[in-house]
Amino acid sequence: MYSVTVKSYAKVNLSLNISGVQGGYHAIDSVVASIDLCDAVRVRARRDERINVYMRGCGSERIPPERNHAVRAGEAFVAAFGSRGADIEIDKDIPVGAGLGGSSADAAGVLNALAKLYGVGDRAALKALADGLGSDTGYMLGGGFARLSGRGTRVQPLASPRRYDMLLFLPASPVSTAECYRRYDAAPDPLRADSARLASALQAGDFGGVAANVYNALQRPACELNAEVAAALEAAASFSPAAYAVTGSGSAVFALFESEELCRWAHSRWKGKMRARVVHTLVPGERRRVLPNPFALGQASGQDKTEE
Fold first, then answer.
1. Does residue 136 carry a catalytic annotation?
2. Catalytic residue among 7, 11, 131, 271
């Protein structure tokens, strides 16, 4: 095998609690989900051990190599498994600095692609390697629905019988994650999401239970750091979704709707300058039966469908 291409998906934080600091990292309790927004990662084998990364899209061309998680992931893989190197091309569609896990997705995509290229099947070793690269990189290796705890490296996979449709608002400017956490530490939010209840609702296909527990402890500091985040929240609220919130430390905001039709209705009526797009949750690489969406127009009740 000479080359491999994989898709690496973005995530949204349906809930995000912060419970303190452990070993210099913030301890979190977060329910996350992959969405159908992804970067394409293509790796080609080299004869030597060198890692070259070429990125296109979303301003990624300006990321210096020493700060590029994809470069670090490739070099860590070669060092850990004694493989040859690779030329890596990444076409980005996940915005940088949006709280959608873009850099972690790229690192996880590189690890997954190199594992396929060089026949590495030890998923536990890959997970350990990913955890050393970033707090949610280990989760990004597989994606899907999950509850993250600790510094984000403890991953409890969750099964959901239905998908969730969202309108994603994408401010043009990013939010600094480090500064966002510093702002939070200076004035912690006394409110908390019930992530356990949200996880149970996800697994039961209980849309109302999911919507009722959407929350992000970093939402206020993200708004303080970037006025576009507050504008995105206002835009989301204007369509009266079932729930809406910042994802990660921002700047992206998602609005959760009962159906794709409602998402597309809201998108068609959005006249602002901020970019918006319709997305839905998914489990990467999995074809599964999902419960019919009772809010979907024209869908017969009791009819199952299969999606990837």
1. yes
2. 11
Using DSSP's 3-state secondary structure scheme, residue 241 falls into coil
> Other C-beta atoms within 10 Å of 154: how many?
16
In 3D space, the residue among 248, 251, 257, 249 whose CA is nearest the CA of residue 211 turns out to be: 257
Under a CB-based contact definition with an 8 Å cutoff, are residues 256 and 242 in contact?
yes
From the CB of residue 271, how many other CB atoms can be counted at a distance below 10 Å?
A: 5
- Mark whether 116 is an active-site residue: no
With H, G, I as helix, E, B as strand and everything else as coil, classify residue 52. Answer: strand
Please check whether residue 229 is in contact with residue 222, taking contact to mean a CB–CB distance below 8 angstroms.
yes
Catalytic pick from 29, 106, 136, 165? 136
How far, in Å, are 123, 138, 199, 212 from residue 146 at the CA level?
A: 17, 12, 8, 18
Please give the chain's pLDDT, 308 residues, in tens.
699 999 999 999 999 999 888 777 899 999 999 999 999 999 999 999 999 999 999 888 888 877 899 999 999 999 999 999 999 999 999 999 999 999 999 999 999 999 999 999 999 999 999 999 999 999 999 999 999 999 999 999 999 999 999 999 999 999 999 999 999 999 998 888 899 999 999 999 999 999 999 999 999 999 999 999 999 999 999 999 999 999 999 999 999 999 999 999 999 999 999 999 999 999 998 754 444 444 343 333 333 333 33
Distance of alpha carbon 283 from alpha carbon 195, whole angstroms:
20
At 66 the three-state DSSP class reads helix
Calpha distance 188→220 (Å, rounded): 10
Which of 102, 101, 100 is closest to 92 using CA atoms?
A: 102
| Nearest CA-CA partner of 40 in 70, 83, 1 | 70
